[in-house]
Amino acid sequence: MRSVTLFTVLILSAYFAHSFGVIRFGKFSISASFFFLFPMLVVFGPIITSMAAYVISLFQYTKIDLSRRIYSGSQYAISYAVAGLAIQILGVNIYGLIVAFAIFKILNFILVDLFLYFYLDRYRNFRDALKYLLLESGIFALVIPTAYVLYLNLDNNLILYFSVYTLLFPFFLTYMLSVENKSRMELEEEKVRLSKYVNELKRVLEVSELLKSNVSLVDLMMRVALIIHDDLGWEYVLVSLVRPDDSIERIAYSGITEDDFKKLQANCPTLSFVKNIMRDEFKVSNSYFIPEEADINLPDEMVYVGKYDVIDGTSWKDKDLLWIPIYDKNGKMIAYISPDKPKNGKRPSVEDITILEIFADQVRVAIENSSEFETLQEKTIRDPQTGLYNHTEFYNRIDKLVQEKEKFSLLMMDIDDFKFVNDSYGHQAGDVIIEYLAERIKLSIRRGDIAARYGGDEFTIILRGTEKMIARTIAERLRLSVAEGNPPVKVTISIGIAEYPSDSLTSNGIISVADKALYMAKMHGKNQVEISN
Question: In degrees, to the nearest 5, what angle opens at C-alpha 390 toward C-alphas 389 and 396?
């Protein structure tokens, strides 16, 4: 009966220790079940202990796949069986127990540390493995005298219970050592990580001056890509520019071959495609990390896939994406950076992404200070013939004023009988008249007012902070200036005026009211200025 009780206590303790008491030292681990299985080996022999070790490993309460459970159980069964054979040959004495202990540890070291950890790519080097072997052996050796005393005093209840009780001390000692080791390693890792971030921040501040240098936009972005590759620790880098017409152009790269970059340039995504993927569920800080598991449908020709070493769930995967958007002062995205695969092979932390965002903000300043980018922006919002704002930009400006509820008057105008001019004198003469009217408009408006070519021979002026009665005076002055000018062909203009917010509360409404006033000016004989009723 006493043997049954002892066996039950030992096997239950071994099961719980193996399932919940695995103690880790770095990448190596210690199974605390040895504290209870080795005494079982001494008292009950190798066959029972080997079977118990195999069953415990097979049914342990941990998330380990079946093949690992079978291998673990088999190696424990072999190790305990051979160690038990040594005890049977040498007898249950201190010498026999020490030899059995040594045999077990050597077999366990070969089958686990040198084979299994190497196969799972958790093996670091032979010196570390020996260090942890000596650490394990020093702690596990504490079980030898307890097991020997337990064997000699099976009939003595007091000593039996005391021996089982003392088996807990090496277990707790090992656990405390592992906690201390884990805390020390985490502290070291934190120091290394902080040192890395400090160095990266210093580098970001150093290159901020470099990015302010007067170089072409492409050269500037190539420097950005190179800095992210060399100094911020990313294997592959793409920098894409969002042009004012919302098209995307990939303009810089690092870590990628020129041929691969040209393929990516030829297959740029659309802005709507990019924004559709930039969802809140993928947002990290102010950037977007789209993991491979999200299963986003990305055409192969649109993404770059490099060489990756996927080891575990924290590794950077083939289809992982990280986008660092860059916004201008008005909140419009003007570029984005696509770093791919950190050089440490791990998915980025929030701190890693924050460093990139700090750097991206420096890039934003550099882009906005680039005269080339400013010229590019102006070209896309200006009418090439007159230099006035184009139709699209006119709507952007009037929508913004309405959103901000700023008072303004709108002048809608066109050239009287312009079709007759074109038909009689030719389109070349018509172009000269268009340019002439544009110059007259530029001379008649104040700083801050907005003039645009609405389309064909139609023009608009937004007089900010101006009531329509004052706007009428300005319109009359412009009408007379055009009529009294000396272009190749004498022309006149008709003008309609509406006021925000008194005539309408929407941009489309104001345009419609001004257009109706222009129609009335035409109906009243042309060369007129009409104010909305």
Answer: 85
Residues 28 and 172 in one domain: yes
Q: Kindly report, residue by residue over 439-480, the tens digit of the pLDDT.
A: 999 988 888 899 999 988 999 999 999 999 999 999 999 999
* Same domain? 120 vs 177: yes
Select from 335, 406, 325, 410 the least CA-distant residue to 377: 335
296-337, pLDDT tens digit by residue? 777 776 777 777 777 777 888 888 889 999 888 778 888 899
How much is the pLDDT for 380? 67
In a domain, 206, yes or no: no
Which of residues 27 and 386 earns the better pLDDT score? Answer: 386
Q: What is the pTM of this model?
A: 0.46
Say which residue the tokens 């120091």 belong to: 191
Q: Which of 83-87, 181-185, 275-279, 315-319 has the lowest mean pLDDT?
A: 181-185
CA torsion 262-264-270-273 (nearest 10°) is: 180
pLDDT digits (tens, 9 = 90+) for 25-74: 555 566 778 878 888 888 888 899 889 888 888 888 777 778 888 888 88
Asked if residues 50 and 84 have their Cβ atoms less than 8 Å apart, the reply is yes
Edge to edge, what strands does the sheet with 450-455 contain? 450-455, 458-464, 408-415, 493-500, 529-531
How far apart CA 19 and CA 30 sit, in angstroms, is: 12
Angle subtended at Cα 197 by Cα 193 and Cα 198, rounded to the nearest 5 degrees: 115
Mean pLDDT over residues 360-373, rounded?
73
Q: Are 468 and 394 in the same domain? A: yes
Tokens of 116: 């299994």
Q: Is residue 203 a part of any domain in this protein?
A: no
Residue 165 sits in which domain range? 2-184
Please enumerate, as own/partner, the contacts of 169-174 that have beta carbons within 8 Å and a separation of 24 or more.
169/142, 170/35, 170/139, 170/140, 170/142, 170/143, 171/17, 171/21, 171/32, 171/35, 173/139, 173/142, 174/23, 174/30, 174/32, 174/139
386 lies in the same domain as 468: yes
For residue 526, the domain's CATH number is 3.30.70.270
The answer to whether the beta carbons of residues 320 and 254 sit under 8 Å apart is: no
Tell me the backbone φ, ψ of residue 117, rounded to 5 degrees. -65, -35
State the total domains in the chain. Answer: 3
Dihedral angle of Cα 132, 134, 136, 137, to the nearest 10 degrees:
160
Q: Are residues 240 and 362 in the same domain?
A: yes
Residue 252: inside a domain: yes
In a domain, 202, yes or no: no
